[in-house]
Design a protein that fits this description.
By secondary structure, the chain is α/β, with parallel strands linked by helices.
Length: 937
């Protein structure tokens, strides 16, 4: 029950924020405190950044921006990182406000684009800003959902471009996952966009309990309460992150001791087993099963079902692994649905896929897909057809699907909460190597567990694996340090668009507002403080160096130059001696008697084999020493040159492995060398010593040193010690200053180098773009400059429809792995000649980039040229997938990206025959399952 003071505070808040009061009334549940704070700040006219865990309800703040826009007769754009999320949000807003007030723009679809509320992908908004679209007129609010995507290496720059280029009059609502540097991001937003209120929320709406499944048994990860299961109150500063800061006790010490024992025993078994002999006859006929093991996927699902822990998302970092898991569950006879649920699933599947071409259903695996769904089991990954993924998402959200085997892409944005999240492994393939998942990724994945308003608690389950360390998992589960790092860098398309709009100088200034430069400048602040401290210390050193006879720093600098000169001379002489020694060794012959000057074998020796010269190690002679040892020597044993003082004939049948023969030959060697004495012949070392007197410049500096007034100071050596400290600190200070120079204006300098490339190719003319630059401004692809150069040089002009599709595919496709063929199948005829010209253009541009010290253009990938050619030629989906070994979802996604680029080429080509060909390509490849995908996405 509320106290009188709380009631009065609520009354005052309602009076000050009537829009928030009205918005609250639209929901049948109470809004959280962080949601109310964010909404109130937005109503007061502030920009807002909300950083909160997955499932906490931060999107409600974005919906309040929509509410404000409609209430005030203004316009709001709601941006998302992926089309599927845009479609989902569009459907949510249409159900609340009606189809007449909500539009959708995703590149594929344009629905009611002039509505007061428009949902779109972030790239669409970026392109609208560069094009100066009239749709921007009257825009008052922009919601940037999943704004932490700006850390994405390939797409993150788009978010920063939008935040920088949006008019300041537009209020931005930035919604982010929990990051540890939200305050820093908020400071940057305030710098770029004005007054920004940062609202942080670290508390999960549903407590999360952590488990490890060993065999078929579920163990708690922590002995007591899991850190993620705690519910804390906000701190006095209003920052819940501080309230929920982990206690000083190392969280790894809180791990369930039973799990620690299991890990110790399991590792001992594994270690002992690894020491057993590996020869076939030594292997036991039947090896004992390990006491602890990784459970089968179907067993995991059965255990979760028995424990009332479904629905679950089962993360497997492999598309094939997800598909295999579904098959395993089907073969085990799992059925997780009731008859009524199966009927509803079949109805939804039939309805959502009714427009799919019948001839494609078999190759798409429709029947197996539908059978698995009817049992409450599904896969979800990027290789699936988008329509299939949407069916899975809808059925899972309705509770009809009980377990989804998914790759990590499911954790990015799609609203699919579950009661339980399972992680099969804690490592994944990142395209180059198997790497451990980060604490941020662990939190993002397990954040799906626990459905607000449905589940009292959520559960995260990690499966036992060989070598498993529960303490490492505890560290992942409790770490809250995952900062947001900018991935921003200027591209060619960005440069021409900015110069065309505001000129080069203004564009350069705008790019210095990027979050990347802001973070770099923040680091510079610390370095600048270090320079300041060093400068103050140097002034103190100067006072200690002062000499009543003269300028001691000048004297000390002269001493340092003399020391440097002597050291360089010594190095030069040492190098000369090494060269002389190597030349002397190379002159040795079999039977030469030598004296080894240094090393373990120092003394008299007989050369058995001069050895072959090695580029890395020099000659390696083999010798017999007086103590009857055969040694292979190296340059380390010869710091000075060596001379043969005689020759001893070695018997033709001498065997260095025969001890008797070694003893006899060593005795003969001893007899010969006894006559020379212990030291042998006169050493040549005296001839190697070069006196410093041979260096006139060094002698001149020494004379200046003796003539300097400070040379006669009684405190000279004391001053010299302070001077050495001064010079060391001064050198360190200059290094720090160089770091500051390197980090200051880094984005602007990179922009300058990009512009130098564009100047050299005549895409820019001062503060204006050329005709070629205007074409480049219309091309948004990673290989934008290659595409623009191909346009300018007429590479595409005389190609047919299938040939143009094949060539443009080389600019779009990027292999998922390095295992794809390096010499893929290509169409015959003009396509090969065009691809060779494109390759030549790419090589020329890459050489220019190296000269200008930039690196933007990845290599072209020809592995999609043949599938694109065949599809544009009218081949069936079954034929293309069979010939290319592509997954259906991958094929559809790449064809849609090919359509995007082809439309850009048509736009950039102007009123030419190429424009007609490009539009024919789009018409020809947007058919069958591609047309269906464009319609539903």
């Amino acid at each position: 029950m509320s106290t009188p003071s709380e009631k009065y505070a609520s009354f005052r808040s309602d009076q000050e924020h009537p829009a928030v009061k009205e918005f609250r009334g639209l929901y049948d549940f109470a809004l959280d405190e962080f949601q109310l704070r964010a909404c109130a700040a937005l109503e007061d006219g502030h920009q807002v950044l909300v950083a909160a865990p997955t499932g906490s309800g931060k999107t409600l703040v974005g919906e309040f921006a929509v509410h404000l826009a409609l209430e005030r007769g203004q316009k709001c754009f709601y941006t998302t990182p992926i089309k599927a999320l845009s479609n989902q949000k569009y459907a949510d807003l249409v159900s609340r406000y009606g189809a007449d007030k909500v539009g959708l723009l995703t590149g594929d679809n344009s629905v009611n684009s002039e509505a007061p509320i428009v949902v779109m992908t972030t790239e669409v908004l970026r392109n609208m800003l560069y094009a100066g679209s009239r749709t921007l007129l009257g825009l008052s609010y922009v919601v940037m959902d999943e704004v932490h995507y700006l850390a994405d290496r390939s797409r993150g720059a788009v978010w920063e471009e939008v935040l920088i280029h949006l008019p300041v009059s537009v209020s931005v609502v930035s919604l982010s996952a929990t990051v540890s540097n939200a305050e820093e991001f908020g400071d940057w937003l305030e710098t770029v966009r004005g007054n920004t209120v940062v609202v942080l929320e670290e508390r999960r709406p549903v407590p999360l309990f952590q488990h490890v499944m060993v065999g078929k048994r579920l163990h708690d990860l922590f002995a007591g309460e899991a850190p993620t299961a705690r519910v804390g109150a906000p701190s006095k500063s209003g920052n819940p992150a501080k309230a929920n800061a982990p206690v000083k006790t190392d969280v790894k010490d809180l791990v369930n001791p039973q799990l620690v024992r299991i890990a110790r025993d399991d590792n001992r078994i594994f270690r002992d087993d690894s020491r057993k002999p590996r020869r076939r006859r030594d292997l036991p006929k039947s090896r004992p099963a390990r006491s602890h093991f990784t459970p089968y996927r179907s067993d995991v699902v059965e255990e979760l079902d028995a424990g009332a822990l479904l629905p679950a998302i089962f993360f497997i970092f492999s598309r094939k692994g997800c598909e295999d898991a579904v098959v395993q569950c089907l073969r085990s006879g799992l059925r997780l649905t009731k008859p009524s649920e199966r009927d509803e699933i079949k109805r939804v599947v039939a309805e959502r896929t009714a427009d799919l071409p019948d001839e494609d259903l078999g190759v798409l695996g429709y029947h197996d897909f539908a059978e698995a769904l009817s049992r409450g089991i599904a896969a979800h990954h990027a290789g699936m057809l988008a329509a299939f993924k949407e069916v899975v998402e809808e059925l899972f959200a309705r509770g009809l699907i009980k377990v989804v085997f998914a790759t990590e892409t499911l954790a990015l944005g799609i609203n699919m909460p579950a009661r339980t999240v399972v992680l099969e492994k804690l490592s994944k393939w990142n395209g180059e190597a198997h790497v451990d998942i980060t604490p941020g990724e662990y939190t993002q994945l397990t954040g799906r567990a626990g459905r607000r308003g449905i589940d009292v608690e959520g559960h995260a389950v990690v499966l036992w694996q060989p070598g498993f360390d529960p303490r490492e998992v505890a560290g992942l589960a409790s770490t809250r340090t995952y900062p947001l790092r900018s991935s921003f860098s200027p591209s060619y398309n960005m440069a021409v668009n900015l110069v065309r709009q505001v000129g080069r100088t203004r564009a350069r200034d705008m790019l210095e507002l990027s979050f990347a430069q802001f973070q770099s400048d923040q680091a510079v602040v610390g370095l600048a403080r270090q320079v300041q401290r060093n400068t103050e210390a140097l002034e103190g050193y100067k006072e200690s160096i002062e000499c009543h006879l003269g300028d001691f720093l000048e004297y000390a600098a002269l001493r340092r130059r003399i020391g440097d000169r002597e050291a360089s001379g010594s190095k030069r002489r040492k190098l000369d001696r090494r060269v002389e020694a190597q030349e002397s060794i190379e002159k040795l012959k079999t039977g030469d008697i030598i004296r080894i000057p240094a090393g373990r074998s120092a003394g008299w020796a007989l050369v058995l084999d001069p050895g072959m010269r090695s580029e890395r190690e020099g000659p390696r002679p083999t010798v017999l020493t007086l103590d009857r040892q055969v040694r292979k020597l190296s340059m380390i044993d010869f710091p000075t040159p060596v001379e043969a003082i005689g020759v001893l004939r070695i018997p033709r049948k001498f065997n260095p492995r025969n001890p008797q023969q070694r003893r006899e030959l060593a005795q003969v060697l001893r007899t010969r060398t006894d006559l020379l004495g212990e030291d042998g012949p006169p050493s040549s070392r005296g001839r190697d010593v070069v006196s410093h007197a041979d260096d006139p410049e060094l002698q001149e500096m020494r004379a200046q040193l003796r003539a300097h007034p400070c040379h006669g100071c009684s405190d000279r050596e004391d001053h010299a010690r302070w001077a050495e400290r001064y010079f060391r600190l001064d050198r360190e200070n200059r290094d720090v200053q160089r770091k500051i120079e390197q980090r200051t204006n880094t984005i602007a300098r990179q922009f300058d180098r990009v512009c130098q490339v564009l100047d050299a190719l005549h895409y820019l003319d001062g503060d204006k773009t050329t005709e070629a630059g205007d074409r480049l401004a219309r091309i948004y692809t990673e290989l934008d400059l290659v595409a623009a150069e191909c346009l300018r040089q007429g590479v595409f002009d005389d190609l047919t429809v299938p040939e143009l599709a094949a060539c443009l595919a080389a600019l779009v496709y990027e292999s998922r792995s390095k295992d794809e063929p390096t010499s893929p199948r290509l169409p015959r005829g003009d396509v090969r000649e065009a691809l060779e010209r494109m390759g030549s253009i790419w090589r020329d541009l890459s050489a220019l980039e190296r000269d200008m010290r930039v690196d933007f253009l990845r290599s072209m990938d020809l592995n999609f040229c043949w599938p694109a050619f065949r599809w544009a030629s009218g081949a069936s989906l079954a034929e293309v997938l069979y010939e290319s070994d592509l997954a259906a979802g991958d094929f559809v996604r790449w064809v849609k990206q090919l359509i995007d680029l082809t439309e850009q080429i048509a736009d950039a080509a102007g009123d030419t025959a190429l424009r007609k060909t490009a539009r024919s390509v789009v018409d020809q490849i947007r058919r069958g399952v591609i047309a269906y995908a464009s319609m539903v996405e």
